[in-house]
Design goal:
The chain is of the alpha+beta class. The protein has a domain of 130 residues. It has 11 helices and 30 strands. The chain has a 30-stranded mixed sheet that branches. β29 and β30 form a beta hairpin. The longest helix has 31 residues. It starts with a helix and ends in a 7-residue tail after the last helix. 24% of the residues are buried.
């Protein structure tokens, strides 16, 4: 045999051996992936013990249990149905229990990981949290069961949980969980108690993802602590915490906190709360946090709500029937125009009050206890300076108290209470003011500017309704005040009194136009169901005086007043000039009409007239 033939024969033998080896390896691998039936009773007992240790006693377990070696040794249950004594049930395409390799050498099966494929998990009513506190407590308890707070090395615990394509539903759902919850995730724990987990899914129509990690417990000292970090994303909103988990009572987290909430109402709905119904601006929170299962405290805190930046402290307590938000905050500049525009009572494109329903956001679904101060506040048509406000809400009733605040060139303080009713809202307001620019005030609130001056006084008002128009038609109470250094636009009473002496008929023909400057005016009103009765009114514009009486229909924005202006007493002892008139029409176009009979009667015996 030639050398070439020998070389070719050697190559053929090498190729044949490699082929046989590959076929053998392929056969081994294939056998490794083949699911091998196992001893059902022994395997079932092992699985029941593992599930019982991690989740609680079982009442039933069914499914086909098999064993395979590759890609890792594992017991698999196909078409599985598990019911726990607690009422929790699991239906899954497959559950895989990964086995430790070393014990298998000694014919011992030790599960080290659990994987659930397409599980459908159902929780009964009594297992569903009824409020935020119970939800957080049960979540914390579950975390402890999964090894999130294990304080000592654990050799027989599951080190990894995997869920793929899962869903959670709640039978006879109650707040805050009402399912279904789509869920994918992995939780890995180490024997020293450290853990890492990530999850993603969909809840209440919103995609979410979360990632967390826990370090090992620090040695020595009480309470013990361990590093913790958490990141939660919900759409464009996110939350991050990085600090320490304290083994205290209750368990707490201390550390840095930051959150950006793009849509506050969506987040409130996602956690089971009641949204405000208004278009809430973006919210940003940063600060040092103390977190328990029922409360979050930020101190110091930096808060930005839309364009408003604030500093101070903030607390969110969900331990009661209603969430409580409290804090002490301060701001340099605040622009509240966007929030207050829907509350202005005057319709923009018509002469009446707004007919639209008052915002649903006035009926709060959380309690408040907030103290707020600001150097400058923009309310749209007026800027407020050096203001201090307390906002207190309890069971839907809202109290807003304003300390001595600079506005409309003066100072004011008062209180507003808003209480939801079946037909809308009940509003109560009382307060006092001094040095107020009356022209600016009436233009801002009533959209009229007929009377100007520096006003001081007090008021106590109440109303109810579902719209600004309803509120203005139902307003009742009492108000009184004094105006100094003012003017009345639309009529020149001093000029009219002079004309009466010589040309009374000209007064009859035309009273409108000009303005009356006065030194002082006092007024007292009684309001009932939208109508203000003028109890007493007197105006001094030396050497003349004027008295006014009648009623103002605030609801219909109309006037029905009678007045009498009196000139000085002549030196010859005759009667002073007197101008009797009525004021009718509406707020936007009042009509001043002289009392013709009284003017002609006075001047019938006068020798001063030239007409």
């Amino acid at each position: 045999m030639s050398p070439i033939q020998k070389q070719r024969g050697h190559k053929r033998r090498v190729i044949a051996r490699l082929t046989a080896l590959c076929l053998a390896v392929a056969a081994v691998i294939a056998l490794g992936f083949i699911e091998i039936p196992t001893h059902q009773r022994a395997s079932k007992a092992l699985i029941e013990a593992t599930i019982g240790r991690e989740f609680g006693p079982m009442s039933s377990l069914s499914g086909d249990i098999t064993f395979h070696v590759l890609p890792r040794p594992a017991l698999s249950i196909n078409n599985v149905a598990i019911d726990l004594e607690s009422g929790l049930s699991v239906r899954a395409t497959r559950i895989i229990f990964d086995l430790a390799l070393a014990p298998l050498v000694h014919a011992t099966a030790t599960p080290v990981a659990i994987g659930l494929d397409e599980p459908q998990i159902s929780l009964p009513r009594e297992r569903v949290p009824a409020d935020f506190t119970e939800f957080n407590e049960k979540a914390l308890t579950l975390g402890l069961r999964l090894g999130l707070a294990r304080s000592a090395p654990v050799t027989d615990a599951i080190s990894e949980f995997r869920i793929s394509g899962g869903s959670v539903t709640f039978t006879d759902p109650v707040a805050p969980l009402d399912g279904p919850l789509a869920l994918n995730g992995t939780l890995t724990t180490a024997s020293d108690g450290s853990a890492h987990g990530s999850t993603s899914g969909q809840w209440r129509g919103r995609d979410f993802s979360a990632d967390f990690s826990l370090g090992t417990w620090t040695s020595g000292g009480e309470p013990r602590a361990r590093p913790v970090s958490l990141h939660l994303a919900l759409g464009k909103s996110n939350l991050s915490v990085k600090g320490t988990l304290n083994d205290s009572q209750p368990v707490s987290i201390d550390g840095g906190f930051s959150s950006t909430i793009d849509d506050l109402d969506h987040v409130i709905t996602w956690v089971g709360g009641q949204p405000s119904g208004a278009s809430a601006p973006p919210l940003t929170l940063d600060g040092t946090a103390h977190i328990t299962h029922s409360a979050l405290s930020l101190a110091p805190a930096q808060i930005r709500l839309g364009p408003v930046a604030m500093n101070g402290s903030l607390t969110v307590d969900v331990g009661g029937k209603r969430p409580l938000i409290g804090g002490t905050l301060s701001a340099g500049d605040m622009d509240l125009t966007g929030w207050l525009t829907p509350l202005w009572p005057k319709a923009k494109d018509s002469s009446g009050w707004k007919l639209e329903k008052l915002p649903e956001s006035l009926a709060l679904h959380q309690d408040l206890d907030i103290r707020l101060s600001a150097e400058r506040v923009n309310l749209g048509i007026v800027r407020v300076a050096d203001t201090a406000v307390t906002i207190f809400a309890k069971d839907g009733s809202l109290d807003i108290g304003v300390g001595s605040t600079h506005l409309f060139q003066g100072k004011a303080k008062g209180k507003l209470t808003v209480t939801p009713t079946y037909s809308g809202y009940n509003l109560q307001s009382r307060g006092s003011f001094e040095g107020i620019d009356l022209g600016q005030l009436t233009l801002a609130v009533l959209d009229i500017k007929r009377v100007e001056g520096i006003a001081s006084g007090k008021f106590d008002l109440e109303s109810s309704g579902a719209s600004a128009d309803d509120v203005m038609h139902m307003i009742s109470g009492h108000a009184e005040g004094k105006i100094a250094s003012g003017s009345l636009t639309g009529v020149n009473l001093a000029n009219l009194l002079r004309r009466i002496e010589t040309r009374p008929l000209s007064v009859i023909r035309d009273m409108r136009g000009g303005r009356t400057d006065f030194d002082a005016m006092t007024a007292s009103f009684t309001l009932s169901r939208g109508k203000a009765t003028l109890d007493a009114n007197e105006m001094a514009f030396p050497p003349n005086t004027m008295k006014l009486g009648g009623a103002i229909d605030i609801g219909n924005r109309s006037l029905d007043l009678t007045g009498e202006a009196t000139g000085p007493t002549p030196q010859n002892g005759s009667e002073p000039a007197t101008l009797a008139f009525t004021v009718t029409g509406d707020f936007d176009d009042p009509i001043v009409t002289p009392d013709i009979n009284r003017i002609l009667k006075r001047n019938s015996g006068s020798t001063q007239t030239t007409e």
